[in-house]
Amino acid sequence: MDPEGSRIQDDPYIQVMMAGSTLRKVKSRSWKKNRYFRLLEDGLTIWYKSRWAGRGHSTFSVTDLEAVREGHQSEVLLSIAEEFPAELCFTLVFHGRQGNLDLVAESPDEAQAWIQGVRKLIHKTQTMDEKERLDQWVLDWFHKADKNKDGKMNFKEVKKLLKMMNVEMNEDHALHLFTMADKSESGSLEIEQFVFFYKMLTQRDEVWKVFQDYSEDGEKLMLEELESFLSVEQHEGEQSAQHAQELIERYEPSETAKKQGAMSLDGFQMYLCSQEGSIFKPEHQDLYQDMSQPLSHYFISSSHNTYLLEDQLRGQSSLEAYIQALKRGCRCVEVDCWDGYDEDPVVYHGHTLTSKILFKDVISTLKEYAFRASEFPVILSIENHCSVEQQKVMAQYLRQILGDMLQTTLLDGQVPQQLPSPQELKGKILLKAKKIGGLEEYLDETCTDEVSDEEEMANCDAEMASTEDSPEKKSKAKSKMSRELSDLVVYCKSVHFGGFEHARSHAKCYEISSFSESKAKKLAKEAGTDFVQYNTRQLSRTYPSGLRTDSSNYNPQDMWSMGCQIVALNFQTAGLEMDLNDGLFRQNGCCGYVIKPDFMRDGNTQFSPDKPEEREGYKPLRLSIQVISGQQLPKVNQKEGSIVDPLVRVEIYGVPQDQAKDETSHINNNGFNPVWNETLDFTIHTPELALVRFVVEDYDKASRNDFIGQYTLPFTCIQPGYRHIHLLSKDGTAIPPSSLFVNISISELT
After folding, report:
1. Does residue 442 have a pLDDT over 50?
2. Which residue from 329, 340, 377, 342 is spatially nearest to 362, judged by alpha carbons?
3. Counting Cβ atoms within 10 Å, is residue 292 exposed (0-12), middle (13-18) or buried (19+)?
4. Which of 311, 337, 462, 470 is deepest in the core (most CB within 10 A)?
5. Do 569 and 304 meet the contact criterion of CB atoms below 8 Å apart?
6. 10 a known binding residue?
């Protein structure tokens, strides 16, 4: 182990960071304040405070950072570009939904030191293996607890540390472990001894038991014993022999064991805690699906009112909201366009106090970020409230800024009978908006036609009318459409939904309708099979009720069960609904497209989510989850001395019959290594549509349980056997090394 990461500390950029710098923290044009920043000795924590604020300071970890942007690369820094030159400016971008940190250095050299230094540290944290990560985690705790910074820890400090780490332990046991680790009998532990203490503390009896079941001598697993474990417990069949060999190569720390072709308990535990030992099938993490089917055959990760970072009435409109959604793999973003000053269209939530941003800036951001997370097409959904003049300006911006990225022509010059595939549209942006006439008609190039107002307004249902009293939204007014903008719409022409009967006989595959959540649910109830059939050929978009002014979300699973592809959610709002969205799209290389099950791609399908047992090939499965233990769960309440009482709940989301949840009992005062050993059983009628969510909560008999962590994944991506589930925060970001250890079996219902 390299306790202090010595090599990186020799880097001149890192030395500047460790010496500390005064950087200007910028929140707006008027809020610019000096703060003193420095990198702490652990090489991971960045500490900062105002020179004047007594003892108050803030810290964050390099592991919280995703990237460093150089120069004027944020709205805030662009707004002060005249005051501070680009070579002094940089932006620290955090994972998840945490806001950026915009900073201005005193000299270009200092800016470079921080930009390059932080990039190096981010790279280092991203390339650590499991063991280094754990060592680093232990090291962080050591530094946190070593109050007097003498590089040693006495028993009093260790007791405090155990509390910080969420461990309730009887004092005699803790002292016994402390004494065993204190080999020099000095009454305190240095870093190496502390690592030994931590190892004893985290010894996993439940892993040891599994190891013992397969190891003849109790010391190591020989190659054939490991093979047998992989075949019997991990259900790996044929490939067990080759895989056993690879696992020893990859995870066994002891060279001696490696030479014998064997695996020690340490190596075994490391394998179980790795990505390969995780619950998610590794082969489903990369792009593995057929991407050559029509767009209507895929679920598409989609965002609602993408420009908002907060609520729907007063929140801030921001380009960062587009960047965050696109980075999460979102493939359908929404733009509400209104007339702006000087013939420059703006984007905001009309008739509310949300702030405005320029349409051209949104399109530039789209160009920059559209294909960073995925190369498959992005649908730009335009809600158009602009005059014909400003629509022409919009069309110009779209053509000028996006150029060839914008798909403005038919792929083979033919009017399609079915939509093109994600594969054929790689790297392309599709405009979804109203269009004058269809792809079939040839219309006079100069005319400006009338089309009925935005299809969502035409759908104007009661919930919309009740919250948004604007005359535009209530009447099915005719609005003028500019020919220039209309011509840019090819495969996604917005139309008013005229019923399934009408769609069957008249609709074109490139016509797309939008449904509010209540309208979609009503249709699902009245004509489930019709809806599923309709969605095999055409795209449909669903969006949250107008009453959700707080930017809350509806359950997307209800819409996916109908085959709706573009299920738009408020990406800025963390919680169950976004967990499900992240869970579904975690597979297939996180590319934002997931192919629908075959029974939802056949135009003559008879599938109805309410009657799963009636479909051809119906094969229900039993899912049995033994929840064994938890590891290093984070503290929920930072109050000194408070320790969690964790319980695990497993929730199934899918067709109505599959919706279910069950939970373990809670364990008192142990967030460090709670053991449940309880089994939860479920029957899954439509496995192809089911999502499984694991939630850990802090039990509270007096009030609502507190959320600790969760992980959601498609049922079809589950690896059976002994698996670790690496928990995520409420925001969907990793919280290593917090995990659950489970044993999963999946069998046919007999």
Report:
1. no
2. 340
3. exposed
4. 337
5. yes
6. no
Q: Which residues pair with 25 in a beta bridge?
A: 33, 103
Single pTM value for the model: 0.89
* Nearest alpha-carbon partner for 484 in 532, 519, 449, 515: 449
Amino acid at site 298: Y
**Pairing relationship of beta strands 492-494 and 511-516 according to DSSP bridges:** parallel
Residue 324 CA from chain centroid, whole number: 10
Burial class, 98, CB count within 10 angstroms (exposed 0-12 / middle 13-18 / buried 19+): middle
d(CA 139, CA 141): 5
* pLDDT 10s digits, 268-316: 999 999 889 999 999 999 999 999 999 999 999 999 999 998 889 888 8
Alpha-carbon torsion, ordered 565, 570, 574, 576, to 10 deg: -40
Say if residue 383 carries a ligand binding annotation: yes
| Residue tagged active-site, from 72, 304, 666, 726 | 304
Contacts of 503 (CB under 8 A, 6+ apart): 497, 534, 538
> Is position 432 annotated in a ligand binding site?
yes
Residue 404 dihedral angles phi and psi, to the nearest 5°: -65, -15
Task: Compute the chain's Rg from CA coordinates.
Answer: 28
How far does Cα 370 stand from its chain's mean position?
Answer: 17
What's the pLDDT tens digit per position in 625-663?
999 999 989 888 766 667 899 999 999 999 999 999 999
**Catalytic residue (one of 72, 349, 385, 724):** 349
Q: Is 284 a catalytic residue?
A: no
Annotated ligand binding at 34? The verdict is: no
Q: Distance (Å, rounded) from C-alpha 530 to C-alpha 514?
A: 16
Closest CA to 397 of 359, 430, 367, 365: 359
**In Å, what is the CA distance from 529 to each residue of 422, 586, 653, 686?**
25, 28, 20, 15
Three-state secondary structure of 454-472: CHHHHCCCHHHHHHCCCHH
Residue 737: is the preceding peptide bond cis (ω within 30°)?
yes
| Omega within 30 of 0 (cis) for the link into 3 | no
Phi-psi region of 342 (alpha: psi -120 to 50; beta: other; left: phi over 0): left
Other beta carbons less than 10 A from residue 544's beta carbon: 23
Pick from 313, 528, 486, 280: which is nearest to 398 by CA?
486
- Return the bridge partners of 650, or none: 662, 694
Q: Please write down the HEC assignment for all residues of 549-565.
A: CCCCCCCHHHHHCCCCC
159 labelled ligand-binding: no
* Eight-class DSSP state of 298: E
Nearest-angstrom CA–CA distance, 662 and 648: 9
Is there a binding annotation on residue 541?
Answer: yes
CA dihedral 712, 716, 720, 725 (to 10 degrees): -20
Q: Is 168 annotated as a binding residue?
A: no
